[in-house]
Predict the structure.
Amino acid sequence: MRVNITENKKFLKMFNRIYNKNIKCINGISIDSREIRPNDIFIPISGEKHDGHHYIEEVLMKKNTICFDEKTNLLDERIIKTESNKSEIINIAKNWRKEINSEIIAITGSNGKTTMKDLIHHILNKSYKCSKSNGNYNSTIGLPLTFLNCKTDDKYTIVEMGANKDGEIKQLCRAIKPNLSLITNISNAHIKNFKSIEQIAENKSQIFLNLEDGGTAFININDQLIKKISLKSNKVTFGLNNNKADYNGKILNGNELIINDLKIKIPKQIFFLNESILGAYAICNFIGLEDSIFQEAINTFIIPKGRGEIISKNQYKIINDTYNASPASMKFGIKRFSNMSCKNNKIIILGDMLELGEHSKKEHEDLSVFLNPEKIDIVFTYGPKMLNLHKKLSNDFKYSRYFSSISDLKKEFKNIVKKNDLVFLKGSRKMKLEEVYN
């Protein structure tokens, strides 16, 4: 991972002040030695399988590079000794936050946070100068690094925060200091690293509890765990079919979202994002964006790759939701697919959901309740954990089969798929289900 430093002069001045240096140029920062270029800073990370410190000497061979170092005995004027490289990444971002004049909009949630971040940025960018954190870099390493690429004179900066471990969102908030924040939903994604769903909720709640003074929390009151969070900040509520919400959304005619008295037309290919669009509207309307600009932006929004976009291929269609999977997003995807119309067979291909720990077997088995043979024709499952689901499947499907090999799955899919079929693929990122059709 490498980040270009776009505001070189301001960043250089800040960096030299923090570390008492007189560096003349900084072009980028990377935690991957293979991506280092001249005038870059290398921050080696000690991981379970690899330790970046092994590559410091190699990096120093490139012109004007700087290396952070928390553990070696190497001595060089271009090495900055630290107690913790991860802490220094947070520290640099914290100092960069002091340089930024924009309001920070922070998004977290068990599912849909990257799409929500991209959606809000797409909308606000029509009227305001905006930055956003890159991709799904939302960890205590990824977000602080991508944050360094945000512009100091933007009106708004939209960032995504993840929580794979206890305390991470709190740590990120104390560095980034959000002004507005939203939790999309709370489910048992990544529950392997937490004791309970309640602990996950407590961690997500930190994005509300660590707002800057005068900040506002946007509450999805359809989510009972979010609704229960006790707040000190200002709050704005939104929800589908909820008269108690400040922004109450209702579905009309299959492609319209009525928000209070406003009618928003949603393109068919993104209508499944109606709740995300409602949340985005709550924020955009709150800060004063015109409704007509919001509608125009919705018309041109493109779903991020692998997050549910529809692909036309060889006279059949694929819903590509292969980027990641949790129990909640898997159930949502299956329900969405079940309600879609199709001229021929509906084929669903599911890969393992990872990071569920001791809950894995039950979570995979529980998906069987959502797979209805009257609405889905063919079920393919792939991966050792999906074998648990396969064993629970009804015998009423036209065809169902389990695969332990992606190549066998791909071969069988090519044999089975026909003209006018509709195909849904979903699994955790490491399952690489997109290989089925690529």
In short: The chain has 15 helices and 20 strands. The chain has a mean pLDDT of 93.
